[in-house]
Each structure stands twice: as C-alpha cells, then as structure tokens.
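Protocol check, entry for the methods section draft. Step 1: assemble the input record (protein sequence plus ligand SMILES). Step 2: submit for complex structure prediction. Step 3: store the structure tokens unaltered in the notebook. Ligand used here: zinc ion. Step 1 record:
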Amino acid sequence: MSCLFSDGSKWQSGCGMFARFGPRIVSVITSDIRSGVEQLGDMIAAASVIVPFTGAGISTECGIPDFRSPGGLWSRHRPIPFDEFVASAEAREEAWRRRFAMEPTFAAAKPGRGHRALASLYKVGKIPAVVTQNIDNLHQLSGFAEDHVVELHGNTTYARCIGCSQAYDLKWVRECFDASGCAPDCTICAEPVKTATISFGQAMPDEAMRRATDLAQQCDLFIAIGSSLVVWPAAGFPMLAKNSGARLVIINNEPTEQDDIADLVIRHDIGETLGPFVGN
Ligand SMILES: [Zn+2]
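Step 3, stored output:
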C-alpha cells in the first residue's frame, strides 16, 4: 500500500496524523492499514451524509472479473456496440451467447466485505444511496433497497426491451434462445431484448445521472471505491462532490485520475480496508 499526500508525495512516517498543505488540511495515511482504517473511521464518524461510488474493484473478491483489466473479457472479445446490437441479429445472438457463458460467474457471486461494509452504513442511516458503475447486482444483494442503488451502467442480471423497456427474466431469454436458436424480441413491441446494461454507444441513463449528480452535491463525504475514475462520467463525480464541499476519499489498488484532489487516498485491497466496517 502506498499513502499519498494530495500533492502526490509519499508519506513515510510511522503514525497516522494530519498535515497542513496550503490552505486546507490534507489527511494522509501511513503505510500500515490500521492507521488508514482509523482515519477513514474518523471521517465516517464525522460525516452526516456519505455517498459511496463503486467500480469493478469492489467486486473482484466476489469473483466478478474486471472486464477492462489486461486479460479481462474485453481484451479477449471486442465489446459489441449498441448500434451493432440493434442492426444485426448475429450480433444479438453473439451478445447473448457471451452473457450465458458468464452466467455461472454472476449467479455464484455473493457480496464481498466492501459491499457488506457499505450496507452496514446504509442500515444505520449514514448512506442514503450508493452510486455504482457495476452491473452485478451485488449492492442489492448486500441489503440496499433497489431504489437506493443508482446504476450508471445498468444491470446484467435481467433484460429489457430496447423499445418499450419491458423487463424480462434472463431465464425467459435463455428458454427462447434455446428453443429457436435466435435472440428473442419483445412480446409487446417486437423490438430486441437486451441485458439491462448500458452498452458502448448507448446513451447514459438520464435518471441515474441526475440522481448521482444530486447525491454528489448533497453529501459531506464522498468515497470512490475500486474505480480507476477514467471512464466518463465516473471521473466527474468525485470532483463534483469535492467542489460542492464534501471531503473525498479514494480507495483503489492502483493510482486514479483524481488522487490529486482527494483528502485521503488508500491504495490497498478494498475488502481489507472496508472489512473493519462490516457490522458497524
Ligand atoms: Zn418492447
């Protein structure tokens, strides 16, 4: 783990403390996880409204691969863009074959320590909702109400008609596909049915974007977890929260694009960092 000042320099001392750089106080963490957890705990205790923003890194310990990582799914299979899915029956069939191949992975995944820690803080009223880039449904499984999971990239555990938005179970899609050999169309409007995710080239969901913007502006602690913060709109939310007066914590194994504006950067395993907050 490395611990960074917000100017990018490393902290080498042996105990947790605060240092003043320029006009604002910058929290730093030391190289041992315990003091990092302590500082995070202090910030959580001091906060009234905490908004977590999660990316792939929170789900890797649950067996969900990071599609964008080297060797990940997207480096082996070119993602199918939305317009191609709409235009081509072959593309739709290929998209569904890939999704069915992933089903054992998604079906077996259980919430990890990061999910459970956030669910604990949600239960005691510290977290009004979680904003996520993930499509794996694990925040819902950890105890968040569906209404309190703001999904920027949708959800892969069910399907929707791209025309009328009718929801479908994956089981129904699978049965249709197996019976006909073709990707099924909507039984109401005959438009294609697709996983309820946002594909490349597909518009971001307006309602989710609006809610994420409101949450970032209204919180006093914003915690970005397991996201490299390079994919738009992810990169915009930590900065928006910070500019709206919130303190910003970034927990990620790798450096992120927003580390230089964070009050606390923890480059460490997410499960180990958030594990102590499970059940609090
Ligand atoms: Zn439809």
